[in-house]
């Protein structure tokens, strides 16, 4: 009887995280709380780029998608705003930096999907 209980507890301990993970990812992607609008989210993402940068042009549709959906995001040209780029230690572009009240919380270098950047607003990667 004890072996049966141990086996059942072990199976539940293994299965619960798997089921929860599958439920999270099968829900259709990122969705902030239903009553929270993108503009009401804390902080914003700074998209550091330059007009001459091919990788930045490749990442621009992601920026546009978030902007058009109402997410707080700002495009920062490193040539026009070198002080802001220096303040956040930007040494390569494109770079997405999530800031809340001026404090950096997370960053992603290079191109990133809109789904990944949306997760940054919720504290994930």
Automatic annotation (TrEMBL):
Q: What is this protein called?
A: Thioredoxin
Return the InterPro entries for the record.
Answer: Thioredoxin-like_sf, Thioredoxin_domain
Record GO terms (molecular function): protein-disulfide reductase activity
Q: Which residues form the Thioredoxin domain?
A: 10-125
Gene that codes for this?
trxA_1
Gene3D superfamilies (alphabetical): Glutaredoxin (3.40.30.10)
Instruction: List the GO cellular component terms.
Output: cytoplasm
